[in-house]
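Collaborator request, handled under Task 6.
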Amino acid sequence: MQLRTQGVLSKIRSYALPLVIVSVGVLGVPSPLSIASDWTSPLSDDWKAAAEPMPVGPIDGRDFLAPDAFQKSGQGQWLSDIRRTDFAFDELIYSWSVRLPEGRGFRLYLKAGFAGGDSTPWIYAGYWGEVNQVEGRESPRFEQGRLAMDQLLLNRKARTYQFKLVSEGPKPLSLKPGLHVVYTDNRPRQSVWRKYARQTPGKRLPAKVFDLPLRAQRDTKGKYLSGRCQSAALASAMEYLGKAVPLEEIISYTYDPEYSYPGIWPRTIGAAIEHGFDAYIDRFRDWDAVRAALAENKVILCSILMPKEGDYINPPYSSMTGHIVTLNGVTDDGRVVVTDSALVRSGRGYQCQWLEQDFEKIWMGTKGGVGMVICPPEGFQEKVVEDLPEFPDHRAIRQARQKSS
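Structure tokens returned to the collaborator:
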């Protein structure tokens, strides 16, 4: 891929902050050997390394519950086995994988167990298919934490989890879902981190940028549909992978009428599956993991959050509430390219470029690298960008737009 690099490298230099040399272990976490270049310690480096605790970051474990993991426990109910995790966790996300026949539907419930033998109550974790609707549903809260629609957040660490499946469609449930699960310890002990932290591969995979189409948050009649970034991002991914789907047909799956919310993670993934793609939830803590997914021609929908108070270099916008973009890919000179439906009207949503440092903060930093991964069909031929333009000066563009408005 022929990339014009001089522009982006010069712009990175022009926005650079004072240099601090670090050795990186987990994303964004400096090693104990990190020191400012203008500071000299009276202690030896060996002594400091032994005396100072090693900073650690979150660790993730992954699990898959096949449909036969659910065993019948009553009329129209199934329980999974109790799953003991490799390490204690305080956060858990999940996605289901099933294409339900007409007239079928289910509700999903989740329970977490703790070392002392106690557990959470059964927590509502979402529905799929045709069910009797509940109005004005609120995210469950309980003594040990809450489930924020699609994300279990605990105030103490658990060691097990279990799911319950309840048939609630007009017709009895005939297919059980598989479940992809990612559990996280956000504050692991050093010994646990050393054992389970993802190891950086010895050889870095090549950079790659897919030529994804830009889909606006509009229906087939051109009507703007506010807050449908997840559906537009999925539309871009599916069209790139060979299936163009009208936005309203995606929204019928992604929208949760009980929460009155336009698209939680499992429903967005479920929409891709209903349209014939394999898909699952995952977390990406470093760019090597991203490159590995790109090498398999997988398209990642990135869940991002950009607070105003951030030490950004040159981002496309000054802030952003919860948002979903489609990841085109990364370059070897430190750029991240996305397809962003929020920038359609400004003409900057197609192949929108970020500096890697900025995008890392708003994706891996604020959202823990949550990604909805859409897999290519068998025999798919990738379409990559051969000549990516130079990195644009986003700050200057925004300032010019503000002056003209």
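The cover message to the collaborator said: "The chain has two domains: 59-196, 208-404. The longest helix spans residues 229-240. Please let us know whether this matches your experimental observations."
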